[in-house]
Amino acid sequence: MSDARGISPARLSWVEIVFWVVLASGFWLWPKHLALASQVLIAGLFVLSYDLILGYAGILSLGHAAYFGLGAYAAGLLAQHGWGEPISGLIVAGACAGVAGLLTGFLVVRGQDLTRLMVTTAIGLLLFELANRLSSVTGGVDGLLGIDMAPLLGAFRFDMYGRTAYGYCLAVTFVLFLGARRVVHSPFGWSLRGMRDNPGRMLALGYPVPRRLIAVYTLSAAMAGVAGALLAQTTQFVSIDVLSFNRSAEALVMLIVGGAGVLYGGLIGAAVFTLAYHYLSSLNPVYWQFWLGAFLVAIVLLGGGGVLGACQRVYRMLQDRRRQTASQA
Amino acid sequence: MISSLLGVLFDGLAYGMLLFLISVGLSVTLGLMNFVNLAHGAFGMLGGYVCVIVMSRWHVPFLAALVPAFVAAALAGLVLERILYRRLYRGSHLDQVLLTIGLTFMAIAVATFLFGPQQQSLRLPEYLSGQMSVLGVDLNVYRMFLLAVGVVLTIALTLVLEYTRFGASIRASVDNPRVAEALGIRVGLVFQIAFAAGSGLAGLGGALGVEVLGLDPVFPLKYIVYFLLVVAVGGTSSLKGPLYAALLLGVVDVAGKYYIPQVGAFIIYAMMVILLILRPQGLVSRP
Questions:
Q1: Sign of dihedral through CA atoms A181, A182, A187, A189?
Q2: How far apart are CA B283 and CA B274, in angstroms?
Q3: Which three-class secondary structure state does DSSP give residue A171?
Q4: Chain B contacts of A252, Cβ < 8 Å?
Q5: Does B262 touch chain A (CB under 8 A)?
Q6: What is the pTM of this model?
Q7: What's the pLDDT tens digit per position in B62-90?
Q8: What is the Cα–Cα distance from A30 to A305, expressed in whole angstroms?
Q9: Does the distance separating the beta carbons of A301 and B269 come in below 8 Å?
Q10: Using the beta-carbon criterion (under 8 Å), do A296 and B266 form an inter-chain contact?
Q11: Is the interface score ipTM higher than 0.85?
Q12: Domains of chain A
């Protein structure tokens, strides 16, 4: 079966290869902005995980930062207590978030849109409050300090220019992206789209809808946890912000900016959002929030699809025009 | 011990009444029209700012300042319903969430730009401040006032919804818009008025709440969970559900913060998850 919409066929196309090659040449293309680029990649990975549940499975959530934050604190606390080896820390953090996703997934998939929205919001706020109250462990609003990372693979120290961090983030994001890509092109991934578009019919066809939704929710939570862990390890600091409602809302915004239900949408949305935030909020944070809001309203009114959707529309328009001129000739 | 218990109960009820006033409009849009309006708190904030500004700039007395608070929020609701919300009544929940989060962000930015990020305060008139001793318990006069306003408005709303032609039109439009339209009810207009009235009540609640809830630009985000909770837990069958839910929420929140402050807001969120899991349709579900 091939994807009818054509933007992400099952095999890596040349556009995709160029995309990753450009990212990999970031060491030479933007050597002075590697720290910012790492932030983009981390946000991208987080939004990618969110795309799995919202874009593909249609689970509306405003509490995905819970798993991001859980991963960040897990990795941060491990390193703080002397386990500074990054990759095993990353795996443990992902596992923690995944387990949390599994446990809460049962609650989330029970309801409809609104109930899901509220349960996920509540879970996010619950964890934020928990981290705030357990300040002896998490550092509360002061953040988690004293994270000391061992060199990556025993060879690469985390340097102050962020070279190691960038390479590390890029490698992890790439590997998980390929995993997510494999998942959404599998029969499992296609059944998720079915559940998003018509859960009743999928149930009638005999698909175990709740179980599959829980499975993808768990997977997504684990990925979000890895993204959080990357942030903790590369910045060697965990602020309580990682659990904030704003971070969950931002994931939604980034996904919509990039385009939901397309894996690259998350990465592109994260890049656009993070760069716009970086430049505009240095002018004035208030303007930034206003234009972000106005942009969201505009997206809804003008019809969605985000950046990728717009590219696709332009591409289709050009193709139609070419076909017209060809038929006239 | 007993008197502190009564005091907490009283504060909680007043707080709950305020939550009910602000949320009752949301129970129309969200509960009845099934529109996820995350920007509802922004109308409350608008009412609060209008009240504060009118009082400090033009020295309007507090009770008179409540009127422009209601009117401004209702007008804003009317206009926004007309140009934005109406397009999305049949849209997906995701689109509704995006639109209203966008509006909330814009409202926060505008409020910060105009009034700065700090908390606003207003001077209550003499007759509404201080304590009053009732049956040996010292009660805050303003909170008694809030309770009274809440009771009066609840009775008025119930009467309007149950016994007037307009109330019947709202119920009919919600139950079956197509048949209601066929019977000559102008469903669009009914929704518009209901939306504006709900926004106005939120504005009134926001103005009344400056003293209790505080008022700063992040008000719409800070309390949105409470408003959603009132509607989700209360269900939509009548005004009773949201009222009980709001009062319960108010008492639990105040009691939690008073007796076990180290747990803080934890109780509310935990309660929300548990209630939503047990009763996805709300406490008082529709027959």
A1: negative
A2: 12
A3: helix
A4: 97-98, 101
A5: yes
A6: 0.82
A7: 888 899 999 999 999 999 988 888 888 87
A8: 29
A9: no
A10: no
A11: no
A12: 14-283 (1.10.3470)
